[in-house]
Amino acid sequence: MNTLAQKIIDAHGGLDAWKTFASLTAHLKQGGALWPLKGHGGKLDDTNVTVGLGNEWASHHPFGANGKVTLFRPDKVEIKDGTGRVLEELEMPRASFAGHTLETPWTELQLAYFAGIAMWTYFNMPFLLAAPGVASVQLPDWSENGETWQRLKVTFPKEIATHSTVQTLYVDADGLLKRHDYDVEIAGNTPGAHYISGYTTVSGIKFPTERRIFPRQPDGTSLPEPLVVSIDLSDIKLH
């Protein structure tokens, strides 16, 4: 890893501490224009998520009004009832998004896939910078709202299912995340600027509790509206 990647990991609690845990649970309150645009307004407004730390999997519960539960892995996504019975499943789910644009509606299984890759990525960042096959390189500093942030370009291997192969992290002088840019490949490569704040410390690891995602313009600046996704996190626990 380069020195900036190491600084960011250390600022969030350090890799050794992170590796002592296998999973994480949290409560989510979500909003924004994306969910109704994709045909699923309200379905994930108030839910819980469990993600693997390192191993890539995630589960949302409840998933909608009927108490359903999802299980996302890169090669398969499932929707189960409250007893664990599989109601629907989709193998190689990413292929199902071929030809999609931002406006293309999602099936419930596609929604479960998107929510899975998103929350797994967010909770495992920045410790993903130390994962096998992940490469990073420092970019020129970025000024925004009177602040100067260091930037790190991150390239993911194909084995990791995430928003896009190339992403950019922005961090403050202490190494804490301020912004996270990516292009949502499964939604027509839609560019997003994801703002990060409200840090709390859980078992020695620092986690942001407020996330706001806005459209990103070609010059890298973000638009103040629409609010694409909002995520408020509480009751974070490491296991």
Account of the 3D structure:
The protein is mainly beta. It has one domain (3-232): outer membrane lipoprotein receptor (LolB), chain A. It is 14% helix and 43% strand. It is built from 4 helices and 13 strands. The protein has helices at 3-11, 15-18, 34-37, 108-124; strands spanning 23-31, 46-52, 58-61, 69-73, 76-80, 86-91, 135-144, 147-155, 166-171, 177-184, 190-202, 205-215, 229-238. A 10-stranded antiparallel sheet has the order 3-2-1-13-12-11-10-9-8-7. A hairpin with a 5-residue loop joins strand 9 and strand 10. The longest helix has 17 residues, at 108-124. The chain is globular. It starts with a helix and ends with a strand.
Radius of gyration: 17 Å
What is the number of independent domains?
1
The CATH architecture name reads Clam
CATH class: Mainly Beta
Helix content: 10-25%
Overall average residue pLDDT: 97
Spatial strand sequence of the major β-sheet: 3-2-1-13-12-11-10-9-8-7
Say how many strands there are.
Answer: 13
Which helices and strands occur, and which strands form pairs?
Layout: H1 3-11, H2 15-18, E1 23-31, H3 34-37, E2 46-52, E3 58-61, E4 69-73, E5 76-80, E6 86-91, H4 108-124, E7 135-144, E8 147-155, E9 166-171, E10 177-184, E11 190-202, E12 205-215, E13 229-238
Antiparallel strand pairs: 1-2, 1-13, 2-3, 4-5, 5-6, 7-8, 8-9, 9-10, 10-11, 11-12, 12-13
